[in-house]
Every structure is written in C-alpha cells, then in structure tokens.
Amino acid sequence: MDLSNGSPVITDPMAMGQQLMGVLPSNMMPFSVMPGGYSGAGGAGVGVSRRKIEEVIVNGLLDAMRSSSPRKKHNVVFGQENLPEEDPAYSAWLAKCPSALASFKQIVASAQGKKIAVFLDNDGTLSPIVDDPDKAVMSPVMRAAVRNVAKHFPAAIVSGRSRKKVLEFVKLKELCYAGSHGMDIMTSSANYEHNIEKGKEANLFQPAREFLPMIDEVSKSLLEVTSGIEGASVENNKFCVSVHYRNVHEKDWELVARLVNEVLEGFPRLKVTNGRMVLEVRPVIDWDKGKAVEFLLQSLGLSDSENVIPIYIGDDRTDEDAFKVLRERNCGFGILVSQVPKETEAFYSLRDPSEVMEFLNSLVRWKKHSI
Ligand SMILES: O=P(O)(O)OC[C@H]1O[C@H](O[C@H]2O[C@H](CO)[C@@H](O)[C@H](O)[C@H]2O)[C@H](O)[C@@H](O)[C@@H]1O
Questions:
Q1: Are the C-beta atoms of residues 276 and 224 closer than 8 Å to each other?
Q2: Contact assessment for residue 229 and residue 249, using Cβ atoms and an 8 Å cutoff
Q3: Which atom of ligand 1 is nearest to the CA of 240?
Q4: 110: part of which helix (H) or strand (E)?
Q5: Protein residue whose Cα sits closest to atom 14 of ligand 1
Q6: Which of 329, 268, 274 is nearest to 117 (CA)?
Q7: What sign does the CA torsion over 232, 235, 236, 238 have?
Q8: Residue nearest atom 5 in ligand 1 by C-alpha distance
C-alpha cells in the first residue's frame, strides 16, 4: 500500500459521493453526499422534494437497522434448544463457510513453513455481545489466550472502539492496536503509558486526524438529540461515534434514524454505516479495517504474501472489509464469528467467543509443537 502520494482523506465531492455509494450497502442511501446537501445520487433529485428524499434515506437506514443483527433462532426439539449445527440453515451455511475448528488441520497445513499473523476484532469476537457497551469485559481466560497468541505470532487488535478504550478492555501490551475502525493505529503498544506520559505517541498512524474537532462536535449533537430516547446511548470512539440502539424499543428506531439523519445533514464529510445494533458515524475517507490490516502488514514487515498467512477473526459488517482484502490478496483468510448464516467474504467460521478462544489455543499448541 502506498500512502506516499497523499492521505486517504477524500476532498473531491464527486469522489466522496462515489466512495460513499461503494461503502454503504445498497439499501442505504448516502447522507448529505455533497456539501450543501443531498444532490440526487441514484437518479433522484429533479422534481423530487427534499422531504421525500429524506424519507427514503430514513427508511433505508431503518431497514439496515432491522437487518443489522439477525437474532439467533431458537429451535426447540423435545424441549431442548438446538445447537446451531442442528439448524438445517446453519448446517447448509457451514458447507460454504466451514468451522475453523473442524478445518484446523487444513488451516495449519496451508501455513506450513510460513509465518502466521493474527488480527482480532474485539466486541463479539474476544468478548461476548452485552447490552451495556461499557461492560463488555474480556474474561481472564480469553486474555491469557490472546497473550499466548501474541507471544508466538505477530498480533493486532482491530476494533471500532477508541484505541484507548480497547486497550483498557484487552489490557495487553504485547499487541498492536488499531482503534476507531482502523483510523487510529499504534504499531507498538509496548511502553504505551510511558509514551503517553512523554506525549510522544510512537508509531502512530491516524489518517482521519483532521476530523477530530468535527467528531467531537457531532458526538455532542448526537448525544443531545438522542437524550430523550429511552435506551439510546452515544459512544465517542475518537475518530468515529457509535449511536447504540440495542436497548431502544423497536417503535423508537425510526426516531433514532431520523435524528441521526438530521444531525448528519449538517456534516457532509461524515457518513453513517450500521453494525450490530449500532449506527456508526465516521469520516468519509478511503480507509477501513481492510486498509488498516494492509497497513499493519506493511509496517510490521509482513507484506510478503508468499510467506505470510494473515488470519483475521471478526463478527461484524466492518470486519468484512478485512476479509475481502485477504480474499483479494489470495493469502490468509478471514474467520467470521456468527451463530446465524450470513453473507460473508470470510473463508471459515466460528460460533462465538468461546470457539474463538479454542481456536487461538489450538494455534498456540500447534506452534509450540511445530518448533
Ligand atoms: O470492531 P469492534 O471491536 O467489534 O467494535 C464494534 C462496536 O462494538 C461495540 O458495540 C457492540 O458491542 C457492545 C458490547 O457487547 C454492544 O452493546 C453493541 O450493541 C454492539 O454494537 C462498541 O460499543 C461500539 O462502539 C463499536 O463500534
């Protein structure tokens, strides 16, 4: 990846619109693509009132919110909850996206004589999804597993959380951290506190640095407008903002979508995407978790795709950018954490964080035996 000719910040409004159209799922209309408001991308515009366009945007956003976190199906047979494998739809999906545990021998066989690098998403991957984002703590056994992985392989956490917050959750200095969906990368967290104290954040890459004041402003506005909605919460993740609706009654989701849209109209250089019961507001820049993985591979001296096998484990839509990069590079593979069938660019799957831990422990055992 060559960043020498410029930053990933998009300044051309046309390019910004194209970027946005490429990033958002087709059922989500872009927010205020052009400075001064919506310009009619996709054929809308002339003769269509602004109000109607807003309705389309809000409805698109609402559809995305409804489909963002498919709930686990509970099949009850003889009074017992079925395991996902016993669900025919899940079993059919496993044929396309096999379990990384069941395929472990195949995975390590492809890594024979090569160097494995491990990239891990945080929420939903290393810690289970919980109602309160501040309580998504990592279990001590998972922390031990991640620490062991970092001892044996180059490893990084790539999260939507702010880098500082994810470090507080993970509490390991042996890894690299990419916070804010990859927009805040520190390639070495060793001596983290020392570096902060000295005010010299070493090995730092922040492609959206110029958006900091804007993110603070939008975060305050979002907090203000959603303060009356029961269950809604706003999390400032430094270079992006999460508007959580997990604890909001479904009847109020439309209001959340409408208010977020209204606020975003005043910020044409920001966009919204959706994650697991969360709307993510972030800068319109040509940067995502996939680009962050490429950057990390390059800065850690691991860009030799013949001899390095990157493994990326994640559960979210934002992790798909990383899965896609690995698929396109034709080296390494993504592992999607999911209990329900999903469209994915990942090659393998794991059901939940406990299986992630089992996989990480297996990798370490394999490495120890293969030395
Ligand atoms: O990239 P990640 O590390 O997966 O971060 C993505 C978002 O994760 C967090 O939200 C999600 O987990 C919460 C805790 O389990 C849950 O309450 C929420 O509904 C999920 O969307 C985090 O709070 C967000 O800021 C991250 O963007």
A1: no
A2: no
A3: 27
A4: helix 104-110
A5: 133
A6: 329
A7: negative
A8: 160
Taking alpha carbons only, the member of 196, 186, 134 closest to residue 163 is: 186
Q: How far is CA 209 from CA 160, 184, 216, 285, in A?
A: 16, 9, 12, 11
Alpha carbon of 22 to ligand 1 centroid (Å): 23
Is 286 a catalytic site residue? no
Q: Are 148 and 132 in contact (CB under 8 A)?
A: no
Q: Give start and end residues of each alpha helix (H) in 201-285.
A: 212-226, 253-264
Residue 106 backbone class (left: φ over 0; alpha: ψ -120 to 50; beta: rest): alpha
Q: Is the pTM of this model over 0.80?
A: yes
Q: Distance between CA atoms of 219 and 79, rounded to whole angstroms?
A: 46
DSSP label of 318? G
**Residue-wise pLDDT tens for the chain (371 aa)?**
655 445 676 655 444 443 333 333 332 333 332 222 323 333 444 456 778 888 888 888 899 898 875 554 444 333 344 566 578 999 999 999 999 999 999 999 999 999 999 999 999 999 999 999 999 999 999 999 999 999 999 999 999 999 999 999 999 999 999 999 999 999 875 444 444 444 445 689 999 999 999 999 999 999 999 999 999 999 999 999 999 999 999 999 999 999 999 999 999 999 999 999 999 999 999 999 999 999 999 999 999 989 999 999 999 999 999 999 999 998 899 999 999 999 999 999 999 999 999 999 999 999 998 87
CA 32 – CA 54 distance, rounded (Å)? 10
Choice among 2, 12, 87, 121 that is catalytic:
121
Distance from the Cα of residue 183 to its chain's centroid: 11
Q: Ligand 1 centre and the CA of 124: distance in Å?
A: 7
The DSSP code sequence of 289-312 is HHHHHHHHHHHTT---TTTEEEEE
- Tell me whether residue 356 is exposed, middle or buried, using C-beta atoms within 10 angstroms of its C-beta: 0 to 12, 13 to 18, 19 or more: buried
Ligand 1 atom 4: residue of nearest CA: 123
